[in-house]
Every structure is written in C-alpha cells, then in structure tokens.
What does this fold into?
Amino acid sequence: MRLLGVAAGLAVVAAALWLAMGRREAPKRSPAPVPAVRAPAVTEPQPVPVPLTPYEERRSDLIEKRSALVRRLQETAAGPVSCSWPEELDTLDLTPHGDPEAVVPALVSGVIAPEAYAYGIRRVRWFVRADPPPVKTFRLVAESTRDADGSWRTFWK
It folds into this structure.
C-alpha cells in the first residue's frame, strides 16, 4: 500500500509541476501572406437592354431590308418622299412632297408595282399634309393595293 501511496503522491506532484510551468507551446510562426484582394472599381450601372418581342424583331428586320426600296422611291420621285411604317407589317405609308396626282402614279408604276411585293408590302397609303398645315397633321388621299392577279390598283379618296 505504501507503494501505491508513493505512486499517487508522485503523480500529484508531477501534475502540479506541469500546471505550474505551463505547457510548452510550439514556436509561433508568422502567418502565410494573403494575396491582396482589390475592391472592384465602382462604375456607373449600365442599363440592361430590354429584349425585343418577336413582332418587334421581325418589324426591325423588315424595316432594315426595305431601306433599299425607300432609296429607290427617293431616287424616282420628283421630290422627297417621307416614309413611315405603320403597325401592319404589309403596309407602307408615304407622303410625297409634291403634287400627289403626278407623283403617285409615277411611283406606283416605276417602283411600287415592280418591287414592293418582293419586300412583303401589299398596301401603300399615300398622305398629304393637311390644309391649313397644323403640326404633323396628314390627310389620306390615295391607297394602292395589290390584287389577287398581282396588279396594283390605286384608289383615290
């Protein structure tokens, strides 16, 4: 028993010394360098383009393709011709700057009849500025349409 008491006493003394002296710590290492992270440059937010609907895409493509027809109309007319594209994709609105009774037949026979249908145009509406001329007021004077036989007919209003 004495031996057991001595062993227990030695264990208590060893534990007390260990606590008194503290555990030996491993030497401290400097931390590994961390690569510098730059904050992104602050820029103005860019607007996100709104995607076009299928109708808007088709309309935009047709207008771009029909620019050659509009150029031919400008070259053939006795004076400038204003062009606009209404919501109907098969229609073209034109406003000749001259006497419509002289310009319309010339443009129908010279440009509209031979070329317009190839661009998907089946109807052309002719406008003149209203009299007296308030801002952007137009009056429909004629309409040219392609019939089932492929002939273009102009109807005066």
